[in-house]
């Protein structure tokens, strides 16, 4: 099961966070700081899976953004690694070459995409067309 999903830039600023288990606000900031420090300090040659406390971290770097997913021990690391890549491909398709600014100024759209893919910490959809369909409907409604 997925515990949390983070998007972080190279400076360590969180651009997106979604928690699928209750974590108190002050603990979230401490957790995010520690997780970010662990991921940013690793070199590109090192593995993208880290065992951290009672869960595992799966992360992937795209240009200046890191996407970090916290999972429990029963979740498949490679499936989550591919989920991250699929998520970025969907963002690229929707925003046509997604950037950090796209994420910052369209955070609601990014949350919709993530919510279409992951529900209560479980991966429910990976088909790009089905994930983007609600957004295209919203865009058509906004145009008219």
Short overview:
This protein has 144 residues and is an alpha+beta fold. Helix content is 47%, strand content 26%.
Overview of this structure, please?
With about 140 residues, this protein is α+β, with helices and mostly antiparallel strands. The chain contains five helices and seven strands; from the N terminus they run ββαβββαααββα. The protein has helices spanning about 25-40, 75-95, 100-105, 105-115, 130-144, and strands at about 1-10, 15-20, 50, 55-60, 65-70, 120, 120-125. A five-stranded antiparallel sheet has the order 2-1-5-4-3, sandwiched between helices. Strands 6-7 form a two-stranded antiparallel ribbon. Strand 4 (about 55-60) and strand 5 form a beta hairpin. The longest helix is centred in the middle third of the chain and has 19 residues, at about 75-95. The model has no long low-confidence stretch (mean pLDDT about 95).
Number of strands: 7
**Rg on CA atoms, Å:** 15 Å
The proportion of strand residues reads 25-35%
* Chain-averaged pLDDT: 94
Helix/strand order, N-terminal first: EEHEEEHHHEEH
Output the structural class: alpha+beta
Strand line-up in the sheet with most strands: 2-1-5-4-3
Percentage of residues in helical conformation: 40-55%
Number of helices: 5
Distance between the termini: 40 Å
Report the biggest beta sheet as strand number plus sense, adding barrel if it closes: 5 strands, antiparallel
> Which spans of ≥5 residues are poorly predicted at pLDDT below 50?
none
Q: What is the molecular shape?
A: globular
